[in-house]
Amino acid sequence: MARAHIITYGCQMNEYDTHLVESQLVALGMDMVDSPDHADLVLLNTCAVRGKPVDKVRTVLGLLRKEKQKRNLVVGMMGCLAQLEEGQQIARKFEVDVLIGPGAILDISKALENNQRFWSLQFKDELHDFIPPAPVDKLQAHLTIMRGCDHHCTYCIVPTTRGPQVSRHPDLIMKELDMLLAAGVQEVTLLGQNVNSYGIDQGKRVPGVPSFAELLRMVGSSGIRRVKFTTSHPMNFTEDVAQAMAETPAVCNYVHLPVQSGSNRVLRRMAREYTIEKYLEHIAAVKKWMPDVVLATDIIVGFSGETEEDFQQTMDLFDEVGYDQAYMFAYSARPGTPSYKHFDDMPREVKIERLKRLIDKQKEWALKKNAAFVGQDVEVLLRGDATDPSLLEGHTRGNHPTFVPKVPGYDKPGIYTVRISHSTPHSMFGNFVDAQGQVLLPVKASAANA
Ligand code: SAH
Ligand code: SF4
Ligand code: F3S
Question: CA-to-CA distance for 145 and 122, rounded, in angstroms?
Fold first, then answer.
């Protein structure tokens, strides 16, 4: 077996795990290829957070099963869905050969050793100590600082799929960071379901592990240009994090603080463990330490029992905070979660209609927020060519997708100063600014031909 391909669904933790498994496959002598078409091994790194990603996996596995009848092909399932009974049923139905849960990904080598069906669902301690090789030729990288989640939000499947929280030792994190730095990485995103509770696993402080605020300062003084992190949980958010962010220049002024709902009644039913009043206190602390902070959130609309009034409170909260970015989802009742068992689901039309109204509001805010950057010089990490190869694409310190036309001498990935010329709710567009503060406009193709 020689060629392998991984299809990744879900969040950045899955992206990190895909990179980790790819490095294992390469160590086994396999070639990673860009498409499943000519691969001998296709792995699906799955997500189970909502029904949609699960449906996608079913569709793709159906196609792969047909493909297996035509040629020699090994199909594997990894990621969150693999950990669930639901996923294992799907795997049996579609004749999946290899199934490894999120805690068992290092078993991939064992799985491929012999030609038998291999399933592994254990959470293995060795995974926390494993340092994957740095990505090649990449300016940005993810770095997992913890795995699992100790919360029990009633809608959420993640604690079941990823197990209880385990913080990684800071020595390992710093070692992994050194390797990233040596490989030329300039922006690192620290990953965890609740980075703010780093160092406190199952309610107990882990000996030898600093607080998240201290870790931010350590990572920020390593020489890396940009540090980001995701996700923060409002319950564990403490002001020392906002202070550490403000006092550590490498740490970007970007906070992703999922609120989920603007209604205390709904938050209680979700078991989110904070009130809107508390949440707004955290937002105020963040704004006090970083007046130019870019704020992002996650919102679930149409949760079981959400009334029009509850939803209106979410809309009002959006205006009160003035989010720059938001990830918005219609509630998806997931088998195995407490809300699936105990609460009724509401009609899909209601959820979709509310979601639409919220998205309209988000667009208005994003339009306004992004327009404020027009005329300003901002730092952009350009990671490579956009779909239109005359442009480079990347993002600001506040995670705004940004597009810049190439000009002579400014056509390679890197961190640059860009003067924003216009913006939309989704993206910003601008031009390079040279060391003298001069804007570098591209020579139009037509003018060049004249
Ligand atoms: N640990 C992170 C979130 C991880 S899941 C946190 O607590 O902030 C990412 C997002 O998916 C959540 O913030 C939530 O908005 C959404 N989500 C989770 N379960 C969901 C469900 N059953 N239906 C719809 N959205 C869901
Ligand atoms: Fe899910 Fe809640 Fe844990 Fe986030 S904090 S992963 S939403 S259970
Ligand atoms: Fe991520 Fe989806 Fe798992 S959001 S943690 S891959 S369920």
Answer: 20
Mean pLDDT of the 173-200 span: 97
Intrachain domains 126-365 and 377-449 with the same fold: no
Tell me which of 3.40.50.10860, 3.80.30.20, 3.30.1330.10, 3.40.50.10490 is the CATH number of domain 126-365: 3.80.30.20
The CATH number of the domain covering residues in 377-449: 2.40.50
Cis upstream peptide for 231 (omega within 30°): yes
Query: What does the block give as tokens for 5?
Result: 């391909």
Closest atom, ligand 3, to C-alpha of 11: 1
Pocket of ligand 2 contains residue 149 by CB under 6 Å: yes
- Confidence band for 450, pLDDT divided at 50, 70 and 90: very low
Does residue 149 have a known ligand-binding role?
Answer: yes
Separation of 50 CA from ligand 1 center, angstroms?
Answer: 8
275 to 257, 262, 308, 425: CA distances (angstroms): 14, 9, 19, 29
3-125: CATH number: 3.40.50.2300
Q: Is 80 annotated as a binding residue?
A: yes
Question: Maximum distance among all alpha carbons in the chain?
Answer: 71
% of the chain residues with pLDDT over 70: 98
Q: What is the pLDDT of residues 196-236, one digit of tens each?
A: 999 999 999 999 999 999 999 999 999 999 999 999 999 98
Closest CA to 86 of 187, 157, 168, 135: 157
252 is in an annotated binding site: no
Answer whether 0.90 is exceeded by the pTM.
Answer: yes
Q: In angstroms, what is the span from residue 308 Cα to ligand 3's centroid?
A: 29
Give residue 101 CA to ligand 3 midpoint distance, Å. 12
Confidence of residue 1 (pLDDT cuts 50, 70, 90): low
